[in-house]
Amino acid sequence: MRYTAQLSIPNKLKQRKIGFINQNNIKSRIKKNKDDMNYKDFFSALKATFNIYKKDLLVLLFAILMFKFGRRWQDGIMSAIFFPAIFVVMFKMSLEHKLYTLIFLIPWAESRQMPGQMMGIVGFNPVNILFLMIGTTIMYRKKKIYAHSVFNKWILFYMTLVLIADIRGVDTIPYFDGYFTFTSYFLDVFLKPLEIVLAGTMAFYVLKDPEEMTRFLRMIKISGALLAVYVVFRGGGTLGGVYKLTRTLSIHKNALSFIFLTLLTMNLATMNYGEKGERIINKIFNVLYILGIMLTFSRQGYISCVLILFLHFTKKGTKGVIVFIVSAILFWSYFMPVEVKRRIFTGTAKGEEMGVSEHLTGDVTAGREAAWEASMPVIKEAFWFGRGMYTFAKEVKYGRPELPQHPHNAYIQSMLDNGLIGTILFLTFFISLFYKSWRLYKTSKSVFAANYGYGFAITILIFLIQGVTGFRFYPYEESYFIWFYLGGLMWVYQNQTYLSEQES
């Protein structure tokens, strides 16, 4: 034992030395990246930065064209010209550009900006067509949808749980007073969530090298920035304006807030990759995402945003924490919009003094507490297995118009639908994602892979925290970008060695 211990000491010293050398190499590479583009003047820097984005600029222009004219030209004579042209353009796109276009369009899929149908056929819309084109191309290239990945078994497990909840909830259909038929029910509760998951994870099959991975992240960031600009300017910076905007987008303001939280978390983790001009633009995107969070007036979003920024600055050490605290105090004192402060104090006497839009003094949950209390007897009756999808609608909400449409708590909703057993299984899926991404952060030799893993782990953590006052464990609009980032994580996880070699 002594002899073994004596041998292990030099080995430990050697490992520490190697770790120290690797750490220095990483620091030198990061320093090199920061100094990689020393432009002669501002215009040469602007031109070089534009060259980074120009190859994918047509995707952005195509998406804007869809937002501007898609709904207007959905019917009538123009549809006979517009939609065949759109179909041909999408068909001729490369597989990568199809994916990038889908990234731009999917957050707007249910909005009034996008056509809900093409050539008068319900469901035949640009998002669904792109999804089918990408899936068909992947299968044609013999890359099976169920290709090997450590995550695919977990995704299959997760979607099986969703399907079981859907089947058990079929008896809910009559409680929606004709809104659902059997077909439309499964379209809404299973096929739509399945499309969201597969659309995101398709990135795993499309991406080939680090350059494409960088472009993939770039498209997500630009797509999110475009959505943030729309929210900031069309929302008007008021709670009433945001409620109108959410009706246009068909996305709840809390879901919008979480979309920006996801974008902020992943951008903070990966913003130092790319050329100097792109890194500057990434910092501008951070500002847009934070503005989007602020001006969606989601209080749970505010809490999560503060947590994300705190964790980001904590990684920088004591100085980072001090900078965070000082910046937060200064921003609150001098720059925080009054409308945001009013929203924060909603449900309190302070909020009443400030003239909040919603007069809910004494109820800081904004009406959620009543829904939670009403759900408890139903949970007790079906504690272990729940009663299937939309149990809140048929067992709690029905006949009580004063209650919200859903319990605004993912854990209570899951207990109603799936019981304790099902809720534990759903949480197992998300905890496994957190564990694998955190392990990637801690063990990967690739700096990029480690940072990507950290960002995704924090995203999952925020998702679970947000579930206390909203959202669902099912894949809907609030989690669009989680699934795209998961597709990226699958590729990064599979190609750690390759990424590490590229960085060396």
Automatic annotation (TrEMBL):
InterPro entries: O-antigen_ligase-rel_domated (IPR007016), WaaL-like (IPR051533). Residues 286-427 form the O-antigen ligase-related domain. One of its GO terms (molecular function) is ligase activity. It is a multi-pass membrane protein. The keyword Aminoacyl-tRNA synthetase does not apply. PANTHER family: LIPOPOLYSACCHARIDE BIOSYNTHESIS PROTEIN PA4999-RELATED, TEICHURONIC ACID BIOSYNTHESIS PROTEIN TUAE. This is O-antigen ligase-related protein. Keywords: Ligase, Membrane, Transmembrane, Transmembrane helix. Its main location: membrane. One of its GO terms (cellular component) is membrane. The chain crosses the membrane at residues 77-95, 115-138, 150-170, 190-207, 219-243, 255-274, 286-311, 317-335, 415-435, 447-468, 480-499. Pfam families: Wzy_C. The keyword Ligase applies. It is found in: Membrane. It comes from Candidatus Omnitrophus magneticus.
